Amino acid sequence: MLKRLRAELSTEAGAPDPRQRQYTTAVLLAVVAATLVGRLSDIGEPLIIAGMTAVLTLISSGGHSLRADLRMFARFAPAITVVLAVGPLLTNAPVLAGALVAAVVFGSGMLPALGERYRTFGQTFAAATLLATTTGIGAGEPAWMLATAAVLGALLALLLRVLVGLTDPSRTIRATVARTLTTPGPGVVESAADAWRADGRVGWLGQVLAGAARFRAAREVLLAQAQQSHGEQREWLYRIAARADEIAAELAVAVRSRVCTGLNGLARTRPEVLEGAANRQVPDAVRGINEGFDRVRRAVLQRDQAAATPAERGGRRQQAVGAMRAHLSLRSSLFQHALRCTLAVTVGMVIVLLLRDPSASTLLLSLYVVLQPAARDSMNGALERTGGAVLGVIVLAVVIVLVPYATLLIPVFIAAMLLRVERLRNDYRVLLGALIAITVLARIVELDERSLVNATISFAANTAIGAAVALSVGFVSYLVLPGSLVPDVRGTVRATVWSVSELLRSVRAVGRGADLKAPLRAAHVLALRRTQDLLGLPAKLDGSDTVEEEAERSSRDAAVALDALRQDLATLAFRPDSERALAVPALSAVDDLLGGNTTARIPDIPSGQAPATELLAGSLLENALHARAAIDETFGYNDPWKSYTISFVRPERLRIR
């Protein structure tokens, strides 16, 4: 434990990290000071509101560079601050509180359509709303005190974020970009590119992303060629890929560093040299790997700070409009799940109002633990989350019975949450579990007149009721809503591939000069809906007796890869015309791969001209290769890269209904 704490407070080289130590010191001082003030002045619940405002604000507006996080803070922090300040005042207006909760839950269920940052904000804002309006924390306090506490919490979050990022504002974005050199799999480049754009498109990081995308695409082509080879040639290709990974790891260290005055010997070499390329013909994929590495090396050493070319004006607005058109329909699995969550929360809200018991404060939070906002996560492990929520409340209640002054655990929980913001951002279940723990600790004070054993039983029972409501609504809705009863794995994959291919061909035609704005928008809307349906498919397959585990895993892999491919295409559609033409060779190669072509090749993409478009071209090919492997597995092809043609029968007309 002590060793792990020391590692977290140190840099990658093992030296003390002053930023993390300053952050940890500031958190501990703030929590200790707030605890003392709360004990002396009896304003514990407003201070809980302040602490929760700080935690939830850091979760929703963090994770990128300091510049991008400050912009997100200005966008998201006011909403969280207002709901935590106003929510407790709605205790005497149950109808208004219920309407607010239902609206927020539905909205948070739809926000994933706009991207990962909005998904995180939606989940966090929903948690803040449930905490403020349904747990009763702060309900008896005056409005001015709640508002002051929430504002102070937001200011604390701002101070902590500035403190940890002031001396090295781009540290987080450098680490995010460096992960593209070391972390395989689809979607990695997309998330890094999104963070890069949010940071302001610093030129040298864009060059690194372009080189990393080319390396990753060439690496996947090399692995595909290795699968098609035999004997010694196959082993040699795999060894080259392993050597390339070692070189990429060294380059990632240089990308993460604040300054770079030179590269070591391993970072400067070539993978085929390490594995002895004498008397062997080097594949084009290896040359592609080296081109990507050369691009990264130049970028790391030169570190050009000039901003890259921005996207066309109105691109984000059109993407947002397309997302709304795609998902504001009962045909959208995202819309179905938003309705499912809203119905479950409404039923839970009615039960809470009927019980009128402080121990019912955990009911809605436990409901939300089971029926999570993301459709693809909802029913996966629902029974395990139910048992975990009930057992967690029982264990916590036993601790309260046995430990005197157990309410002093509240500042401990808040401090732990502030020190583990990254974990809470990445795992929504942990966040909701921590909120349930704080709620039980805060509300147990009101149960002094009753036996703590009875309170334990009451909290556990209400937690179980919330979980049961979530399971019941989830199960019934999966039976009633269209497409939920008997999931068609192959049909859903085929429809998704068709829609993404239609979007790809539209983007390629536009890149060649065709005027296809309306068909392009329609293709984007349909691809959005189909990829979201495929992302939600594993939740429907979980625990099904008629579907094998391999089908579930392959459909999940195909969903992630095709959705990442769809994101690349949607972003490429709004690049300047002069740049979009650079990606036409990559689009043709991807079209061949999705259609069943057995040849994986490196397209001729000019380098050094437009990193924002080059990274998209490389990422397109990588995601297509991942998708192709998952499609092979989904359709039951034992031999990889078997020639086939997916029957692209239109599942619906290319218009929005």
UniProtKB/TrEMBL annotation:
InterPro entries: Memb_transporter_dom, YccS_N. Residues 87-181 form the Integral membrane protein YccS N-terminal domain. This is Uncharacterized membrane protein YccC. Keywords: Membrane, Transmembrane, Transmembrane helix. It is a multi-pass membrane protein. Its main location: membrane. Residues 348-472 form the Integral membrane bound transporter domain. The chain crosses the membrane at residues 21-41, 47-66, 73-90, 144-164, 334-355, 389-416, 428-445, 457-481. One of its GO terms (cellular component) is membrane. It is found in: Membrane.
